[in-house]
Prior knowledge:
Layout: E1 2-7, H1 11-23, E2 28-33, H2 36-45, E3 50-53, H3 62-70, E4 80-84, H4 89-98, E5 102-105, H5 110-118
Parallel strand pairs: 1-2, 1-3, 3-4, 4-5
Helix pairs in contact: 2-3
Amino acid sequence: MKTVLVVDDSRIMRNIVKNTFSLMKIPCQFIEASNGQEALLQLQSHKINLVLLDWNMPQLSGIDFLKQARAQPEYAKLPIIMITSEAAKYNVIEALKAGATDYIIKPVNERNFRDKLAKIAL
């Protein structure tokens, strides 16, 4: 079974993301983190197949988590999708340059989510 790391400082948002997966009938288990620092620890202690990552979080932002994860060779190919309300074009470009696999702007809708997930082999 695949393991998905859901990183967002909002528990409500983490639940929305998990519920969207359930609606799409994608069998997986979830590990949650409320900030980038916690996410790095989860990444090191579990075999993660996909990271769904918020941008704005306390302690370590999503973009900083992304840069730190991509700096480690074992996470170079790990699919990391930013899910954020940061909709400005320069934010999208910054995230993609930092190594994001894809970018979803909140609010998350199932069709958009499904399209993005279809691009990665989960």
